[in-house]
Amino acid sequence: MSEVSGAPHTDIAAYVLGVLGEEDHARFEAHLLECPECQVELVEMYHLPDILDMVKKSWPDPPVKGPGPRVLRMLLADAAKAGRRRKIIRLATAAAALVLIVGGPLTVLSVTDREPVITQAAPSVVTSVPTSTPPRETGPDGGAAPFGWSEAGNAVAAEVTVQEKEWGSAVELELRGLTGPMTCQLFAYSHGGDAYVVNNWSVPSKGYGVPGSPDPLVVTGSTALQKADIERFEVHKQDGTVLAIVRR
Questions:
Q1: Which of 74, 92, 189, 219 is the most buried (most CB within 10 A)?
Q2: Alpha-helical regions (H) of 149-232
Q3: Transmembrane segments in this chain: where (predicted)?
């Protein structure tokens, strides 16, 4: 056991309960700052929440003042320097217990050996989309999800939605700003630059997503590429003119 001024170690419980005389109280505080064993034993005194709860209800006001702010600050500094996480937690708990003693009778402080559990909220994802096209939601079963949109300012606005399949990907294309007549094709490009035809269609004279014909054109198709293997989609006219490019 540790010693205080050459005498046998003073019972830490007497210090915690505030029943030491002023001289013994000050002497023990000075010893506590330099004795890691006493600091740990002080923490272990608070592993009895039920007993301390009974003391809280019946114990009179402490006859002497609680530990001063200098002691509290130095204990917290020692705790911050501890190498192991468990020791940091235990010393910080001891400091918190000393604060409770200053305020009056003992209060309940429940300490367990379990590591603290940190609950982390899932991050929010915000996607910027054109005002003319509301975003599609991903179904609970991992259904179709937006792949991307064409750059703002293009005459033709395109949005691509992809749903992964065992055999590849199911693709849905929504187009606005098309005027006909013309024939178009949708291509999926791999990261290596290979092009895969997804679908082709014709556009009548009235067009789609234009004045007088505001509804968009929606076509579906498929590709052998998995979603992760697709670098971009391109909409071409039959003569090879690129109308829209959709990237992630």
A1: 189
A2: none
A3: 91-111
